[in-house]
Amino acid sequence: MNRSRRHLLTAIGAGAVGLAGAAAAQEAVAPPPDPTAPEDATKVLGGAGGPTAERAAWESPSLTPGKVTGPSYSPLQDFVGTITPTDLQFQRHHGGIAIIDPSRYQLLVHGRVRDPLTLSLADLKRFPPTTRVHFLECAGNGRNGYRDPKPDTTVQIIDGLTANLEWTGVLLKTVLAEVGVQPDARWLVAEGGDASVLARSIPIEKALDDAMLVYAANGEPLRPAYGYPVRLLVPGWEANLNIKWLRRLELTDVALQAKDETAKYADALPGDRVRQFSFVMDAKSTLTSPTFPTRLTGPGWWPITGLAWSGRGRIARVDVSTDGGATWTEAELQGEPLPKAHVRFRHAWNWDGGPAVLMSRATDETGYVQPTVQAFRAARGLGADYHFNAIRAWRVHPDGAVTFVPPAELT
Amino acid sequence: MNRSRRHLLTAIGAGAVGLAGAAAAQEAVAPPPDPTAPEDATKVLGGAGGPTAERAAWESPSLTPGKVTGPSYSPLQDFVGTITPTDLQFQRHHGGIAIIDPSRYQLLVHGRVRDPLTLSLADLKRFPPTTRVHFLECAGNGRNGYRDPKPDTTVQIIDGLTANLEWTGVLLKTVLAEVGVQPDARWLVAEGGDASVLARSIPIEKALDDAMLVYAANGEPLRPAYGYPVRLLVPGWEANLNIKWLRRLELTDVALQAKDETAKYADALPGDRVRQFSFVMDAKSTLTSPTFPTRLTGPGWWPITGLAWSGRGRIARVDVSTDGGATWTEAELQGEPLPKAHVRFRHAWNWDGGPAVLMSRATDETGYVQPTVQAFRAARGLGADYHFNAIRAWRVHPDGAVTFVPPAELT
Fold this sequence. Notes:
The structure is a homodimer.
Chain A: H1 2-11, H2 20-28, E1 70-72, E2 91-93, E3 106-111, E4 117-120, H3 121-126, E5 130-137, H4 155-159, E6 162-171, H5 172-179, E7 187-192, E8 199-203, H6 204-207, E9 212-217, E10 220-221, E11 231-233, E12 246-252, E13 267-269, E14 273-275, E15 284-289, E16 300-309, E17 315-321, E18 329-330, E19 332-333, E20 343-351, E21 356-364, H7 373-380, E22 393-396, E23 402-404
Parallel strand pairs in A: 3-12
Antiparallel strand pairs in A: 1-2, 3-4, 5-6, 6-9, 7-8, 7-12, 9-10, 9-11, 13-14, 15-16, 16-20, 17-18, 17-21, 19-20, 21-22, 22-23
């Protein structure tokens, strides 16, 4: 053990890690009900697998408690890579999780079309399928980091309403070509088959661009919480539009002005103006580690990592600051960034043991740069309720504790 | 039982769910038999989500029964896209699933090195991490489609020993740079911490190329069945080398000549020769749909789809034949093919209702073309036991039934 520690110092370029190894190990593992393992696993025959492979007893990543109406947040701090584990995507329900029998599922496509159509799930699966990786993000994601957050807020609570999966389904334009969109159709109204009958209006241009009718995520059928058997996917636009348990698509000449595009998902701006139909999720990044309640066990090299995404296309670069935005260094992006998808960024940081403020700043391929919280506040006001993409900050204290920095402290 | 059902009613927020709720409750816990859904889900308040999202009661993709020593096959026919669901990767154990306490995990790196090293899991996680998508494939995958298969064999049984996930860990060369490889080191011997203490030899060039020490897959920690907390990843090479529950890496001047590189994972060839250290998985494709027991319900457009991969790099193209190889059409690849990763191919086929034989043929970026079964048999003989990458064939009967075509019928 001594030997291993000595070497790690060299490995991570640190001078004096001390208890680092042991303490970091503890922190990496959050055991549930006291799991046990054989003293020497080579001396004990292991068991056979079951029909599916379970998680290790030492690993229990969880959503925050589920709600019939409201959000449950995804444990971003527990993830590595870019793909969100299928069963740990955030949830936001308006009337609970609808249970739909796939053999009775029907999707009506009608309105200003040449030939209205009703599709079964089997019908839909005979259209040419498409597979793409895209993020989803609730328009309200980040609210908990904007309005008077406490320093002991986790990244799960601040930014846990986003996910990134490999979706499979049919491009909506393929189905719309089948029904024949009338020239006066300007909007697509999508309606869910849950108890809230959630409906939203989507401009026809987006419907004919990259929107999809998806029936699978990460290789398998959608799960009920995410709209089984079919949901709408509107890549890069606020998640509320991505109607789950999709039952109806109506082509119209005007927007529906539904509750969720007037009373909700619209923002009062400074000067008695209102921002409505603010569909696109602008470029954003968020640190996932180190964040509260992580405690760095001592000076030396620590990986800074997080996720970045943009509703307008690919992430072009992510910069990281360890001095509260005074200076920035370009982070390494993991793999080729995909359009409208999470990309993982990393930066190796040699902590000197002094106080530090960690930030990340995304730039997308359109040249859009994630704004400072000061710029965000000037544009959107203190009452903003959606689309919080300002730069987030985490303070590293001399004792290694990491806490969130409330925006009010960044003025 | 009553109590749990009543509980479930509350859980799914139902006022008047009737029997639907109770049934749905049962499934959420234990799989189907006969799931039900409300007649109209818009009239019934749905339930809140749990700490993780369960599969729909109508969907129960499963591995074949697990074995302490032997394979369990992955349900390829149930997957779409390219990412393999984390809990449905194939398994192949030699002494069952080892249970390792992550806080006690240690990896020894020694042998012909300057500075031997022992790493804890926390140590390993402080090295710069890397995220990449790669396939894994058992060297024996395809055996069940080569040796006298029956027409009613499924693609799960024929080719279900392959998977494709987003892996995160540390490049092995980063750790090897730390220990300082001696000039006379020619092989890396990797040893698992399971009851079989499975060990394999890997040429140093591969170890210093793209091999990884991985601790996560599809965004989350490895599951015990797949080597928790750390396995070796040897991209594009036979899965047996990708040692699970990795506990020791030894740099040596000669190969170990372990059981799994002499008695097993070596092939007798025609003419009293033996193929040993046949590491690379050559280019291959396999249809996942339509395959037995799918039955096409009538003439018309049907999607033909499957997976293709190569251990030598990217897939360049996949061709599909519907007439038993007489003519070929280039299939559409979904997304940009990644090196040493599955890619999904698709072809829209207009079935005229007559008999047809479906085939797919992969070509990789090196120009290597997946061989016919005749060419494969000539080169490898009837006794071949590994690396079965010949073109597979599925027969579509006039009644729409689809069956596997045994290689003997393709001469």
